Each structure stands twice: as C-alpha cells, then as structure tokens.
C-alpha cells in the first residue's frame, strides 16, 4: 500500500522529482568544483543575492503564466520601482509611505497591462513589449540618465535588501520565504488558485461556469505588478543604486525558472513547489559557476541552454510517449484482427 | 486572416473592412502626416539630404522587419533577431579580417550563420510544438553568449574591414543611389512576391490564419514554420553584414535591444501579431515610419524619454487598432453568415 502511494506520488510529481535529483547532482558537482561551496552561509547568501529578485518576479510571472498569458514588462516595472523609491527617498518621505505609493503604482501599472489585454483581446506578448518601452521611458523620466547612487537612500530604505538578521539570515530571504508560502496558499489552497488553473486549461469552460475570465486575467497582472514593486524594494537594498536600465537582463532568468519549474506558456500547468526547486537548481548552478570562476557570458549561455533543455525535454518525452501509445494501439489492433 | 480580406464581399462599405483592405494606405498616410508635422516643426527636416539619411537608416531595420514579419505571419515570434545579427556580423567580419584574399564569397558566412540560428529556432519551435517566445528568448541569450565568448574581448574596427565590403554597401553602382537602398528594395520585393505568389508563401499565410484548418487541409505545418524561420535567419544574417559594413564597428553587444524596434516596425506596418495577415512591404513601411519618428524627434530636440515612450505607445496603439478592426470584421462576417466565424 505504502509502495503504491509512493509510486503514485512519483507519477504525479515526476517533473519535480527530476528537478530534485538534478538539485542533488548540482550540489555535489559544485562541492567538487570548489572547496568554498559547501558552507550554509555562503549558499544562503549567494542564493538570495543571485536569485532573490528573479524569484520574486517569478512568483508574479507564474500567476500570469498559469492563466496562459505573458508579461515582458515586469523588469521595466522593477526599474520604475527602484527609481521611484530613490526619488521618494531623496524627497524625504518615510519608508512606509513610499512603499505604499510605489507598490500601488506598480500594481496599477500591472493592472493596466491586464486591462489592455483583456478589454481589446490583444496578444499579451506584443502589448507588454510595447508597455516595456513605455515603462522604461517612465523610469528614465523619473530617474534621469545618471540614476541614483548610494547616497540617495535613507538607511531605512535599504533595510530589507541589505540587512542580515543575527548576522547570517538575510531579511530579503525571510521575505522571499513568506512570499512563497503566500503564493503556495493562494495557488493551491484557494478557489482563486483553482480558477487560475481552470482559466489556463479551458477559458471557454471557465467562462461558461459563470466566472469572469477578464477579471481573473487582469488580477494576475496586478499581482505581477505588485511583485515587481516588492522586487524593486529588495533591489535598492541589494545594489543601493537605481537606474532606468536596471535589471534589463533578468527576464531570461525568470523565464528559465518558470520553464524549468514545469510551467507551460499555454497555461494551466505547473506547481509552486516546482518553481521553488527550479530556482534552487538555477541558483546552485549559477553559484557553482561563479565559484569556479566561469565568465559571465558563459554563465548566461548555460542558463539559455538550460532554458532550451527544459522546453525541449518535456516536448520530446511527450512525443515519445505519444508515439509509444500509438504503436501500442496499432499492435493491439493487429493482434485483435489476427484473432 | 488574409483569406478574410477576400471573403468579405457583402458589407463593402463598413469602416473596418475599408481599413483592413487599405492598411498600407493607412501606414502611408500616417507617414505623410508625421512628415508634414516634422517639416513644420524642424526646418532641417525636409531637405533632400535628411530624407536620404532617413531612408538609408531605415533600410536595415526594414530588412529585419521583413524577416520578422515572415515569422509573425505564421503566428510565431522571433525575439532573438538582434543576437543573431550580432553573431552573424561579428563572425562574418572576423573571417573577412582573417582571410582578406578570399573576397566576396565570404558574404555567405553571415548569411549561413543566420540560417543556422534560424534552423535551431525553427526546429525547436516547429517540431517541439513549444512556445516560440520561450525558445527564441533562450536563443537571444545563447547567440549573444556565443558572440561574447568568440570575441574574447576583441572588436572589429574600421581598419579591419576590406574595401570591397565597404564599397559593396555604401558605394553606388547606379549613380546617386546607394547600394544599400537597392539591396533593400530588391530583397523586400523578392520576399513580398514570394509570399504573395508562390505556393509556400500562401501556405505561410494559411498556417498563420488558422493552424488547425491548415493541418486538416493537409499542409505540413511544422515544415512551413521551419521554412519561415530559415528565411528569417538568412535575411537577419544578411542585414548583419549590411549593418556592420555601414557602421564599421562591431562589438559583442552590437545591436543589443534592436528586437523591440523590429517587432515595433512589424506591428506598426500593419502585420497582425495574431498571424496570417499583413505583408512584408507594410513591415518595411513600418520601419520607415519608426525611423522618421526617430529622426524628426531628434531634430526637434526631444528627450530620449519621449522617443522611447512613443515607441511603446506606437506598438500598443497599432495592436489595439489591429485587434478592433479584426473584431469588427469578424462580427460582420458572423452577421453576413458567409463563413463560420473563427473568432
């Protein structure tokens, strides 16, 4: 009985188990590559340094992907958030008020993306590409060409991204864990979460059961915008600078996390646990490559190859599975006719 | 939805049908409008030399937009064009520098690299049946990574470029007309004719218009999509050659971020991002419109903020216009009951 249960678990979570195995392999390889790797503080710190902002964005991106849409403008929204935080800090606003303003703004910007897409039934890829330009321009307008340096930020602003609790626990990591728990509850334990899957799997059916697809899709974009604002808060603490061209190349990481986590762009597929495992895997790989002194461009190349692999492998497995079941069908038919 | 254009016969007078049928005229009118505005606003704008500059600046973007349009018509995207272009240009010019005696045959190198990149993108998208955005986003970083590793910190400088290369692009065989302009016009004309009058060209539209119907009809959908990516890759490789020969400097981050302008030109040129509708001449016109906007706004002395903002607004606006026109047309089709409406 227990064995059956285990098998069922493996079948249901086959992709996640695969990623877990890869995680273990990556840790072993990284340990062999560099003696510096196997150190809890090193792992915790570099993981949250390299993947922190990407993971926060990935949470928002996941919601949008689940309903079968995409948002390319999230990194640009992070840039808007960072320069707005810097501007508000220079103006001398208390942190609480600026958080309220910036998060409200990025959420509204996300909702605007969603509104444009659902109300005119536009392709999300092209619209968010255009909105990316709009938001970058906005960030440039707020921040100027030079942007802001360390001295722009009051100490309270960089608290979240820069502080270590008890000397080893990054505050942003605690925030990240909290966000993932929230995301898990939202996606897997609420009606709203089930509606996301329903919308991603079959819009028409969801519509016919009396739910407003338009508001579901728009709300996911709102969450995406909110996450971009939170990412901006972590960013200013980590890097203590804010420029309009911030986080230009993060999209690759976010998309790689999503694709590796078992999500499909068509929507309705993937789990939060898969996303967490894929972030851990990518973070470990990047960390290991960094410790092994591998150049930046090679690292980007590797991440790109992982993205390709995580798209191609499931497709290939699906194709082989399809061919196998077709072959089985034919064999059954042949044996039936020979009788 | 090229088939819709011909299918609509009953409600001839409706505005949406008129707009759909005369999209190119619309783009031209818009171009004329901004030319008039800029000539009033900036004295230097309406001079022969400036108009010539605009046209030459638009040439490479036009070829790229044409390449992207072929892919977008099949209902796919290619966001890796800028990285492909950089890879083709860098490797091509590096070989030209290393083998100065081989001569013009080397122009095949950048084109070949473009084709190989297109092959990689196309095979995965077409036969893996996966999202083209994911695949080409990975391509964007992979090709850029390869060119950075290949370069090893070096760059191509003007003295590395042979005379035949520069002359072939910036010189003029026909007096008074730059070769670049001739090459661009010829390529776009060829591709436009290919898409309009050949069997594969029509299949590209059919697939973008309705992939399911195309499959049921018996078209080899993956093969045609792969072909579209190959054609796109070849044109991107060629424009890498032209771009590098014109700018004389090639660095690993050459043309970074250009994909946004390219997709913008395609969308502004009236090619529907939903696939199956629009044509490459429109995409080329879109490139001219964007370049005119760029040039005029610089002459007026506008801040880059506004230019980038207008780029974004142009893309979103063109999308909204396109979607609302298509919605109207399909509503008309439903009411006229001539076809089972698709959307």
Q: What's the average pLDDT of chain B?
A: 86
Alpha-carbon distance between the termini of chain A?
37 Å
Tell me about the biggest sheet of chain B?
none
Find the structural class of chain B using helix and strand composition: mainly alpha
Broad structural category of chain A: mainly alpha
Radius of gyration of chain B: 21 Å
Which CATH architecture of chain B is right?
A: Orthogonal Bundle
Q: What is the CATH C-level name of chain B?
A: Mainly Alpha
Question: Under the CATH scheme, which class of the largest domain in chain A?
Answer: Mainly Alpha
Kindly identify the CATH topology of the largest domain in chain A: ABC transporter involved in vitamin B12 uptake, BtuC
Order of helices and strands of chain B: HHHHHHHHHHHHHHH
Mean pLDDT of chain A: 87
Number of strands of chain B: 0
Q: Give start-end ranges of low-pLDDT stretches of chain B.
A: 338-343
Largest interface by Cβ-Cβ < 8 Å: A-B, 44 and 44 residues
Overall 3D form of chain B: globular
Counting DSSP E segments of at least 2 residues, the number of strands of chain A comes to 2
Explain this structure.
The complex is a heterodimer of chains A (339) and B (343). Chain A is mainly α. Chain A has two domains: 19-30 and 37-294, Orthogonal Bundle (ABC transporter involved in vitamin B12 uptake, BtuC), CATH 1.10.3470; 297-339. In chain A, 77% of the residues lie in helices and 1% in strands. Chain A has helices at 2-12, 14-33, 40-66, 74-91, 95-119, 124-143, 159-162, 171-189, 191-201, 203-208, 213-239, 250-260, 272-291, 296-338; strands at 164-165, 169-170. In chain A, strands 1-2 form a two-stranded antiparallel ribbon. In chain A, a hairpin with a 3-residue loop joins strand 1 and strand 2 (169-170). In chain A, helix 12 (250-260) crosses helix 13 and helix 12 runs parallel beside helix 14 (296-338). Chain B has a single domain, classed as ABC transporter involved in vitamin B12 uptake, BtuC, CATH 1.10.3470. In chain B, helix 5 (81-98) packs antiparallel against helix 6 and helix 13 (258-268) crosses helix 14. Chain B has helices spanning 2-7, 15-21, 23-41, 48-73, 81-98, 108-128, 132-151, 163-170, 179-197, 199-209, 211-217, 221-247, 258-268, 280-300, 304-336. With 343 residues, chain B is mainly alpha-helical. The radius of gyration of chain B is 21 Å and the shape is globular. The interface between A and B is large, with 44 and 44 residues.
């Amino acid at each position: 009985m227990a064995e059956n249960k285990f098998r069922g678990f493996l079948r249901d979570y086959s992709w996640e188990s695969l990623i877990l195995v890869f995680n273990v392999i990556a840790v072993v390889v990284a340990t062999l590559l560099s003696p510096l790797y196997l150190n809890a503080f090193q792992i915790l710190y570099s993981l949250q340094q390299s993947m922190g902002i990407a993971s926060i964005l990935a949470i928002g991106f996941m919601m949008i992907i689940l309903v079968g849409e995409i948002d390319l403008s999230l990194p640009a929204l992070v840039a808007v958030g960072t320069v707005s935080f810097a501007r508000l800090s220079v103006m001398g606003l208390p942190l609480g008020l600026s958080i309220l303003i910036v998060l409200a703004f990025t959420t509204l910007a996300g909702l605007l993306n969603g509104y444009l897409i659902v109300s005119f039934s536009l392709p999300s890829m092209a619209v968010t590409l255009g909105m990316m330009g709009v938001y970058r321009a906005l960030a440039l307008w707020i921040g100027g060409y030079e942007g802001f340096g360390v001295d722009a930020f009051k100490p309270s602003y960089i608290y979240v991204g820069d502080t270590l609790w008890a000397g080893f626990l990054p505050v942003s990591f605690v925030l990240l864990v909290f966000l993932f728990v929230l995301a898990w509850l939202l996606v897997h334990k609420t009606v709203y979460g089930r509606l996301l899957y329903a919308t991603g799997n079959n819009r028409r059916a969801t519509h016919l059961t009396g739910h407003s697809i338009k508001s579901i899709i728009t709300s996911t974009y709102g969450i995406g915008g909110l996450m971009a604002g939170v990412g901006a808060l972590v960013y200013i603490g980590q890097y203590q600078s804010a420029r309009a061209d911030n986080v230009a190349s993060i999209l690759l990481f976010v998309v790689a996390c999503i694709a590796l986590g078992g999500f499909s762009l068509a929507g309705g597929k993937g789990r939060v646990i898969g996303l967490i495992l894929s972030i851990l895997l990518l973070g470990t790989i990047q960390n290991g490559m960094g410790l092994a002194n591998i150049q930046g461009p090679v690292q980007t190349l590797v991440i790109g190859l992982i993205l390709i692999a995580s798209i191609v492998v499931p497709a290939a497995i699906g194709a082989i599975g399809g061919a196998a079941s077709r072959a089985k069908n034919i064999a059954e038919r042949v044996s039936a006719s020979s009788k | 939805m090229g088939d819709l254009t011909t299918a609509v016969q009953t409600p001839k007078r409706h505005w949406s049908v008129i707009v759909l049928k005369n999209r190119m005229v619309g783009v031209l009118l818009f171009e004329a409008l901004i030319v008039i505005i800029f000539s009033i606003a900036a004295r230097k704008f309406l001079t022969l030399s400036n108009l010539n500059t605009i046209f030459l600046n638009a040439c490479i973007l036009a070829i790229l937009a044409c390449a992207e349009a072929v892919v977008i018509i099949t209902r796919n995207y290619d966001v890796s064009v800028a990285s492909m272009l950089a890879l083709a240009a860098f490797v091509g010019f590096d070989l030209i520098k290393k083998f100065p005696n081989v001569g013009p045959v080397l122009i095949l190198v950048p084109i070949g690299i473009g084709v190989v990149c297109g092959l990689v993108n196309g095979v995965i998208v077409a036969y893996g049946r996966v999202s083209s955005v994911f695949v080409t986003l990975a391509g964007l970083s992979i090709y850029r990574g390869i060119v950075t590793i290949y370069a090893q910190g070096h760059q191509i400088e003007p003295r590395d470029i042979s005379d035949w290369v520069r002359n072939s692009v910036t010189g003029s065989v026909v007096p008074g007309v730059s070769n670049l302009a001739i090459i661009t016009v010829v390529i776009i004309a060829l591709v436009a004719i290919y898409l309009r009058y050949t069997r594969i060209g029509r299949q590209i539209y059919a697939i973008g218009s309705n992939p399911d119907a195309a499959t049921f009809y018996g078209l080899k959908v993956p093969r045609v999509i792969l072909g579209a990516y190959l054609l796109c890759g070849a044109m991107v490789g060629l424009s890498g050659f032209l771009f590098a020969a014109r700018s004389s400097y090639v660095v690993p981050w050459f043309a970074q971020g250009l994909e946004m302008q390219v997709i913008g030109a395609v969308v502004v040129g009236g090619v529907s991002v939903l696939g199956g509708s629009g044509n490459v001449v429109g995409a080329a016109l879109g490139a001219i419109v964007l370049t005119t906007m760029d040039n005029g706004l610089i002459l007026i002395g506008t801040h880059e903020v506004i230019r980038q903002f207008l780029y974004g607004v142009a893309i979103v606006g063109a999308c909204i216009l396109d979607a609302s026109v298509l919605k109207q047309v399909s509503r008309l089709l439903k009411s006229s009951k001539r076809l089972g409406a698709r959307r």
